[in-house]
Structures are given as C-alpha cells and as structure tokens.
Amino acid sequence: MVDTFAKVSGQTVPYKVVARRLGDVAQCHVYTRLAHDLISWDVKRNIAQMCAGA
After folding, report:
1. For every one of its 54 residues, what pLDDT tens digit does the chain have, with 9 covering 90 and above?
2. How many C-beta atoms surround the C-beta of residue 25 within 10 A?
C-alpha cells in the first residue's frame, strides 16, 4: 500500500515497520467473489485507483 500511494502521488511516503499494537488485526483478506455472490457487489477500482482517489 505504501509503495502504491508513493507511486500514484509521486511523493515519498515515510513509514516505519513496528510491532502490532494490542487489538491490531494480524492480516486482512478480501474475497470479492463472495461479496458478489451474496449481495451482487462488484469491484470497480483497483488499488492504484483507490490510492489516487484518496
């Protein structure tokens, strides 16, 4: 994500990798096909497009 934000913004994004805080999610995965099957939701933008819009 950091690399994508840097690429689409043309800016350096300073960051530091540190240990997770209490309560932080270890991993997060999205299975968009399930969302489509359950509620007819589809992806409209890729990660780069979403970062550019942010």
Report:
1. 899 999 999 999 999 999 999 999 999 888 889 999 999 999 899 999 999 988
2. 6
Distance separating alpha carbons of residues 43 and 28, to the nearest angstrom: 17
Helices vs. strands in the chain: H and E counts, helices first: 3, 0
- Which residue blocks in the chain are alpha helix, DSSP H? 2-9, 32-39, 47-53
C-alpha 11/C-alpha 33 separation (Å) is: 33
Q: Taking a C-beta distance cutoff of 8 angstroms, is the pair 32, 42 a contact?
A: yes
User: CA–CA distance from 14 to each of 9, 32, 41, 46, 54 (Å)?
Assistant: 13, 30, 34, 23, 17
